[in-house]
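The pair is set out directly below:
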Amino acid sequence: MDRPQLADFLRARRAALQPEDVGLPRGSRRRTAGLRREEVAALCGMSADYYGRLEQGRGPQPSEPMLAAIARGLHLTVAERDHLFRITRHHAPERAGRTDHVSPAILRILDRLPDTPAQVITELGETLVQTPAAAALLGDQTQFRGLDRSTVYRWFTDRSSRDVYPTDDHDERAATFVAELRSAYARGGTGSPAARLVAALLARSEEFAAIWARHDVDEKHVRTKRLQHPELGVMTLDCETLLDTDTGQRLLVFTATPGSPDADRLALLTVLGPRPASPAP
């Protein structure tokens, strides 16, 4: 790979990204043009040493997942992301159709919601990025790989994934997840990722097969959801959805009525930290 070009590109993009762009305070003693290396490393989810070696032109060739993390951390545009992949001798991801690249505009919104549960998901329910409060409320949903990345797949193959919702709401949530997947299947067709996900679920879950056979098409985007936390109990939250029409990604933001007990519980999320993992099925 072209290490000098990579180093120059990373330094230039870091210098262009201001603290206010990522929800950080500028402070009175800041002398660095743009962000500090350790700040970018934290945004990318990697060690400051690893990122520093890339900027110094002496790091190893980053993997594609690492490049995707750098693209998000630096709030790169699609063109800048493609350039990053090319100078590290990787094929740039396909632009057409489905993409896991989150736009800088959506990332800026997330950066301004540090204490609010918010996350970006694909049309298959794959979580691409979460605020810390969302990880505290729902668990780290960015850790999964393969088919397990999809919320609907985990719902029908891993019972512990349902612990986020009260038991009384499980039937409604299952119907909604299947209806959303049917819409994605209709848009993508028989050769799409949605079609492959449907085939896998039909082979794994009789419950999914029964709901799929009903041909429900109403996605039922209810704005109020009940979510439960192992320490805070059940909370009734408003869920606002912002659709990115270019990518089909959705930004979900969870809020509570100011002054309500649910608002007090939400405020405790950042104190409690990441939601404990559910026991393995």
Observations:
- The chain has two domains: 3-87, 104-272.
